Amino acid sequence: MAQTAHHTDDIHPLVEPVADHVLSTERHENAPAVVIRADEVQTVFSTLRTEAGLDHCACVTAQEYADRFETVYHLRRYDDPTQELSVVVPTATESPGSESAAPVYPTAAWHEREAYDLVGIEYKDHPDLRRILLPETWQGHPLRRDYDQDQPQIVSFREHERLLEDRREGPETMHLNMGPHHPSTHGVLHLNAQLDGEQVAAVDPDIGYIHRCEEQMCQQGTYRHQIMPYPDRWDWGGAGLLNEWAYARAAEDLADIDVPAYAQVIRTMGGELSRILSHMLALATYALDVVGEFTAVFQWGVRDRELVQDVLEDLTGQRLMFNYLRLGGVAWDLPEPREAFFEKIRAFLDDLPRKLTEYHDMLTSNEILQLRTVDTGHLSAETAKAYGCTGPVARASGVDYDLRRDDPYGYYDELDWSVVTEQGGDNFSRLLVRLREVEESAKIIGQCVDLLEDWPEDDREIQANVPRTLRPDPDAEIYRAIEAAKGELGIYIRSDGTETPARFKIRGPSFSHLQALSEMARGEYVPDLVATIGSLDTIMGEVDR
């Protein structure tokens, strides 16, 4: 909702350094928002980064209105994500264009490529403005109002000629295709790698092979009932409850819905079980990638995932696509008999320390794994921030950023647990962080079980009184995020007064992590590249959406 420019006394402290560049302000539910000129993006962002401390470009959303296009940049601070600002950059409907934010925030490069690909906004000074999800030969921009869905996508050979040009980094380099159908790429991912001898000269991730229009499907679903089944499908590694929570948090804040404390405890317990589910898969497949350890660690990881899935099946009725959260709470209460359900969880938690010791014996103490992971895939804290990295990938580089603590939600701020960080910034450190986070998740789950056991029976409220049909105010906008297993999972929603969103944007952590791969792999060997991909724990459903 736009407002006119105001007196300097009313300016938010984050906006103060760029007050002279602000055309108007808007009211977003999560943060103050300012509107700036399209030709002042780099000037404004440089000032916000250096003087306002907004060093985290969390998400970029592009959209079309009847009279303009907009790019919305969601900026935050790594040391305090509650300090955030939305920067809105409008452009004309005819030949929409804007300065690129990538020279200031490198992570914006991929986001702007997606905006160009789907919406058609051109970004001046962009380092590599080309399509990212759709083929280079695609005709038109699918999210434009005038897009012709019936037009043919068969093009002549001359349209392909530029794709066949030699793009090697140098005359002595060799091009190597990795994927898109290969287990070491952890999904349908294609890497264009340039090799200088046995070393990696450059890596260009090619994504979009399973782009399924998840955002557009959510825009066609109702807030109350039809969107919630989709988030589980963004991360089939088992973190579905966390994905559901990301949508729930955004929609609940948008519609001003309070969740009962009892339901918050259940969400917190279920979310941490999902985190263990995801991390166990990451550990199991990493052993397979790096040391070919199929017979022990891989099977241990699958075994322990099955135990967690048994618990979640008892809770939700499903083993993978849970669809358990509801706006305002959860679908139903804990299974009966409650004592047997709690006993199953405690049995898993009690045996977990012994199992984690075995994981460390077989993985972190393994000389082969150490040789392949220590000092490989290095990612400095500065580079991690520049590319918007979060979760275990950022925390393994010493970036102490965790939304469960820094932007509290659920029941986390009532519990005793610690944020896990490592300083090495290499593949080994990322493995260590995930192993240690399993311990912290177990600590959180145990405390939740204690609370749920003693919760008064007459106060077990699982859902708030939510209207059957939700219609948030027209032009209300929000960006909300949670700490998913892989990092910051954020949702941007713009409402138009109806029961379906006008714009629904998914900010998956794997998208940013994969973009940083080129910085991490340059100068290393091909086996190091395989180890680095696995250490990022990317999931392509979250990347491509």
Description:
Residues 292-545 form the NADH-quinone oxidoreductase subunit D domain. This is NADH dehydrogenase subunit CD (Ubiquinone). It is a peripheral membrane protein. It is found in: Cell membrane. Pfam families: Complex1_30kDa (PF00329), Complex1_49kDa (PF00346). The chain is an alpha+beta fold. The protein has two domains: 16-124, 2-Layer Sandwich (Beta Polymerase, domain 2), CATH 3.30.460.80; 214-227 and 259-544, Orthogonal Bundle (Cytochrome-c3 Hydrogenase, chain B), CATH 1.10.645.10. It contains 16 helices and 16 strands. The strands form five sheets. Strands 1-2-3-6-5-4 form a six-stranded mixed beta sheet, with helices on one face. The protein has a three-stranded antiparallel beta sheet with strand order 9-10-11. The longest helix is centred in the middle third of the chain and has 31 residues, at 261-291. It is globular and about 65 Å long. Mean pLDDT is 89; it is low at 1-9.
